[in-house]
Design a protein that fits this description.
- The structure holds 2 protein chains of 2 kinds.
- By secondary structure, chain A is α/β, with parallel strands linked by helices.
- Chain A has 15 helices and 10 strands.
- Chain A has a 7-stranded mixed sheet with strand order 3-2-1-4-8-9-10. A 3-stranded antiparallel sheet of chain A has the order 5-6-7.
- In chain A, strand 1, helix 6 and strand 2 form a beta-alpha-beta unit.
- Chain A is extended and about 100 Å long.
- Chain A starts with a helix and ends with a helix.
- The N terminus of chain A is likely disordered.
- Chain B is an alpha+beta fold.
- Helices cover 17% and strands 33% of the residues of chain B.
- Chain B has an 11-stranded mixed sheet with strand order 5-6-4-3-7-8-2-1-10-13-12, with helices on one face.
- The chains are: A alpha/beta, B alpha+beta.
- Chains A and B meet through helix 13 of A and helix 4, helix 5, helix 6 and strand 24 of B.
């Protein structure tokens, strides 16, 4: 027990050291990597503010399982709900492919079980009902209009001008104004697995939002750290499909993050194929092959993350996709695709019965109602002018009158004051 | 458990002895062939519920009325709510008057109950909640585009208090309407899009049209002719106009399958009435309708007596032996002109350059001998500074003084201009309202990411009581088709009409957004070069340095140093 307290203190000391926080936490995470299982235990202890009894239970269970060598079972994911935040950051018709990218991931995620209420979809521009679209209300991912990823049942939570860096970071960290509706919030808890997918135009260390602002990799890493400290996720999978996408996950330092990118620093992500009828490129290569991979996944599939890392090799993608798993505690081979792309739903069957109370019968007053006259001309003409609220005079008006009075008294002399007062 | 058991046995419900508040659902589709060869389809879904949201004990059992809207009504003390999403502009001169008018973009107007203390705060929360329900960016509605009309937009439901302090009106002309707005709208219907007329609402066909408008209207209505009890009415309407050439392949031959790519197989089981009305008033002998129906109905709508063929979907024999209904409508084009609508309006921006301009609104009165008053409502954003002293209203070349003007000037970044005028339109004339404006320069952070597209000015609203050719039906509670009972009718000789003009698109002077970067580079270079040079001149001292002597002299100096003699 003492060791875990010490470790706890050590961890908090490191985190609190503002001077070289990055380096020390990175070192800490390096140590995590080395003593994998040991540190999982430590983290379990430091995270659980539960009574000692549970800790000892876990400890004994841990020992027994290690002795049974069924480590795979022990490291199965402990999440209870799934969320997805899918963001397309590009505006204008020629960026059709970014919207198609996001919608194809949305489609896969919905098909595998995550409901609309758990998906925050942000599209910076409308392609489906754009006047340049020869087939309105459709967004295609394959040429010759084979697959309509827009579909008939789509709910976009942030659209158009609402997709800004500020809104994105507010959604992630949960710091939204109180009147924001539920469909626009990421209401995740510490048992949520979150999938975050970003696409658009990017560069070395930044991602461009709507051609007018950008988000840097440092900001993104800090946002994830805020999420970690507020216990807003259990595990997080970050996928980015932009040019030089690997630069966006270089700066991550929070635990339990896994990241995939479509290209390394210095490489461009290329688009897949144009459709001559629509006139633009329909999808980016990485997401196209990702979509094809996900089409083979069904909710009971046992495919794991190692298969996902193999999606779109250099021969297909031209760029080299990258991934980062050092901050992730479990072995990627034991993480199922459906842990992030699908949805866990725990159903509890109960045999209890609930008594419904009888509705209360109310007695209404009865008096004659009537419809209002839509254009009562005489009433409008003789409408009394509204009582205007009286405001105290403006500073300007006061200054002007003071000036006038001063000039008057200067010209005509102070003796005239007598006549006024 | 009791309910489940009762339903399983398919017995009439022997549930609780106390009766539930009655709710009723009706659905209706009106198809009107237009003179230009296009076809106009108008869906209306009405849910009536005799309940009181405003009482203390909250309503907890929702059946046909959607719970999300019921909670909105009770939480924000809403008396009336009208929201519409429209893509396209209604061409009155080619298509006539619509059953339910709406401006391009999104429009929201709400009457609050008089128990609300802070209307502005409630309005802001309501717009945020509605933006989540309808997946639209209604959260952009704030004080800069909300107005409080003083005479227009009287409540369409029952009530006797009309203090305009409780009315708020806002439009978002830029709002895009697409499947993501249709999806939650369809989910509000009791049968969803699985049964009944809503089966026809497929987005790929609906958005490939000249005009698409979906709206939700909530208001209290009279339950019976005595009007002692009120019930809440929720109307969901969808108007769509399919183009002759885009969807119709140039032939005046339309069918349900051609329009919606679906046919009807059953009525919504929860509906008490489910009907299709086809307007056959124009050119009756050249009109072909199959499958034939014997039901005919007449209704007074838009000041005219129209004849409709009716298909009742609750009757099983409507669907025939194939168990599906695909109406086929065919008509020949007539050479004559369409009957011109009596009231029509246009609006455009005149002028040149990015400094000033002029807004012209034209209102046409096509009645040959009757004049009638119209109420014009204009809401102009603050960045177009109107010069109200240049406001002129002319009819037939002469000045036409409005009998009522209400003007609220704008305040920069706080509220827009509001101009309401009651103008009498002389018969068979054009009335022109002009006002000059100046364009403001916005702060560079206030520009949208695509400022060169332009900035929108919302449509003007023209409300009027237009004289009708036939006596309108003032009995508000007789069994009438839904499309004729939307606007309440108080007198027989006129009917209420609301016309929306086009929205305007104006360019504001747009800065070059790369200039801050350029300026910083240039300034830093100038400062570095200029100040650096000056600093060097001022702080460094100059020493004369002798040029290095030749080789011979250097050797001589070395020898002289050895000798102890001063150098050359």
């Amino acid at each position: 027990m003492k060791t875990h307290v010490l470790f706890n203190l050590f961890a908090t000391f490191l985190l609190a050291d503002g001077l070289n926080i990055e380096v020390s936490v990175f070192d800490f995470s390096l140590q995590l990597q080395i003593s994998h299982r040991f540190v999982f235990l430590i983290l379990n202890f430091t995270r659980n503010v539960a009574p000692l009894l549970i800790n000892t239970q876990l400890f004994t269970r841990f020992l027994s399982r290690i002795s049974q060598d069924s480590a795979g079972q022990f490291f199965s994911s402990g999440h209870t709900n799934n969320w997805a935040v899918l963001v397309c950051t590009s505006r204008f018709w020629f960026n059709y492919r970014h919207v198609a990218n996001t919608l194809s991931v949305y489609r896969s995620v919905k098909r595998l079980g995550i409901p609309d209420s758990h998906i925050v979809l942000m599209l910076a521009d409308d392609m489906a009902c754009n006047h340049r679209n020869p087939k309105p209300a459709t967004v295609f991912s394959h040429k010759n209009m084979e697959l309509n990823v827009y579909g008939d049942d789509v709910e976009v939570d942030y659209r158009g001008y609402e997709v800004t860096v500020e809104n994105f970071l507010r959604v992630l960290t949960g710091r939204l104004p109180p009147s924001t509706p539920r469909s626009k919030r990421l209401l995740s808890d510490d048992r949520s697995n979150i999938l975050i997918y970003l696409t658009g135009h990017g560069g070395n260390g930044f991602l461009k939002f709507q051609d007018s602002e950008e988000i840097s990799n440092v900001e993104l890493a800090d946002a994830f750290e805020q999420m970690w400290q507020k216990r807003r996720y259990n595990e997080l999978l970050f996928i980015i499909d932009t040019c030089q996408g690997a630069s966006m996950y270089e700066r991550f330092y929070s635990p339990n993050l896994m990241a995939l990118a479509s290209s390394q620093v210095g490489e461009d992500s290329l688009s897949h194929q144009p459709d001559l009828a629509i006139g633009v490129h329909l999808m980016d290569r990485y997401t196209f092959y990702l979509l094809e991979f996900l089409e083979d996944i069904h909710p009971a599939s046992k495919a794991n993350m190692n298969d996902l890392f193999k999606v779109c090799p250099k021969s297909q993608c031209v760029s080299t996709p990258g991934h980062r798993t050092d901050l992730f505690l479990r072995d990627p081979g034991s993480v199922l695709i459906t842990d992030f792309f699908g949805s866990v739903r725990k159903v509890e069957i109960t045999t209890e019965a609930i008594d419904l109370t009888d509705p209360i019968k109310e007695v209404e007053e009865r008096y004659m109602h009537s419809y209002v006259d839509q254009l009562p001309v005489s009433e409008i003409i003789h409408q009394k002018p509204k009582q205007k609220d009286w405001h105290p005079p403006d500073g300007f008006i006061l200054g002007l009158w003071t000036l006038i009075l001063l000039v008057f008294f200067q010209t005509y002399g102070v003796k005239h004051l007598r006549h006024i007062f | 458990k009791q309910n489940a058991a009762a339903q399983k046995q398919a017995e009439p419900a022997v549930l609780q002895p106390t009766p539930q508040p009655k709710d009723d659902f009706q659905e209706e589709l009106v198809v009107r062939p237009l003179h230009s060869g296009d076809i106009y389809a108008s869906f209306q879904f009405r849910t009536l519920w005799e309940t009181d949201f405003m009482r203390g004990n909250k309503v907890s059992h929702y059946r046909l009325f959607p719970k999300s809207l019921g909670q909105v009504i009770s939480k924000f003390s809403v008396r009336e709510l009208h929201i519409s999403f429209t893509q396209g502009y209604w061409r009155t001169m080619q298509w006539g008057q619509p059953y339910l008018p709406s401006p391009p973009g999104a429009e929201l107007w709400v009457w609050f109950q008089d128990s609300v203390t802070d209307v502005d705060a409630t309005w802001k929360e309501l717009t945020n909640v509605l933006s989540g329900i309808f997946c639209a960016s209604l959260n952009f509605i704030d004080s800069t585009n909300t107005v409080q009309p003083s005479a227009s937009f009287k409540p369409l439901g029952i009530g006797n208090v009309t203090d305009h302090r409780f009315l708020r009106y806002a439009t978002l002309p830029r709002e895009i309407v697409c499947t993501e707005n249709l999806t939650p709208w369809k989910k509000l219907l009791p049968c969803g899009s699985k049964a009944g007329l809503a089966v026809l609402l497929k987005s790929e066909k609906l958005f490939h049209s000249s005009f698409h408008s979906q709206a939700v209207h909530i208001r209290p209505v009279c339950q019976d002719w005595q009007c002692k009890t009120t019930s809440w009415e929720l109307r969901q309407t969808l108007n769509v106009v399919f183009d002759l050439h885009n969807s119709g392949q140039g032939k005046r031959e339309w069918s349900l399958f051609k329009m919606f790519s679906r046919t009807l197989t059953e009525a919504c089981p929860l509906a008490s009435s489910s009907k299709i009305y086809i307007d056959i008033t124009d050119n009756p002998e050249q009109f072909e309708l199959s499958p034939a129906t014997s039901l005919l109905s007449q209704a007074m709508v838009l000041g005219d007596r129209r004849t409709f063929s009716v298909y009742d979907l609750t009757q099983q024999d409507t669907f025939g032996s194939v168990r599906s209904l695909n109406l086929l409508i065919r008509w020949k084009s007539t050479e004559g002109d369409m009957l011109r609508p009596l009231l029509h309006a246009e609006r455009y921006v005149a002028g040149y350059g990015l400094q000033t301009g002029e807004i012209h609104t034209l209102m046409y009165n096509h009645h040959p001998y009757r004049s009638f008053p119209v109420l014009l409502l204009d809401s102009v954003p603050w960045y177009l500074r109107l010069y109200i002293h240049t406001l002129t209203v002319t009819s037939k070349g002469k000045d036409n003084k409005p009998s009522y003007i209400h003007y609220q000037p704008s305040k920069d970044r706080v509220r827009p201009h509001l101009l309401e005028m009651l103008v009498q339109l002389p018969p068979n004339s054009v009335t022109e309202v002009t006002v000059q404006f100046e364009r403001a320069l916005l702060k560079w952070t206030e520009y949208t990411p695509d400022p060169n597209h332009g900035f929108y000015v919302g449509s003007s609203v023209i409300s009027s009581l237009v004289p009708s050719t036939v006596a309108m039906d003032t009995n508000s509670t007789r069994e009438r088709p839904l499309f004729s009972s939307f606007f309440p009718c108080k007198e027989e000789s006129s009917y209420f009409v609301r016309v929306y003009t086009e929205p305007l698109l104006v360019n504001l002077p747009t800065p070059d957004f790369s200039m801050p970067y350029n300026v910083i580079c240039l300034t830093c270079t100038v400062v570095a070069v200029g100040y650096g040079s000056l600093y060097n001149l001022l702080t460094r001292s100059f020493q004369i340095e002798e040029p290095s002597p030749g080789l011979a002299k250097r050797i001589a100096n070395v020898i002289r140093k050895m000798r102890g003699v001063p150098p050359l």
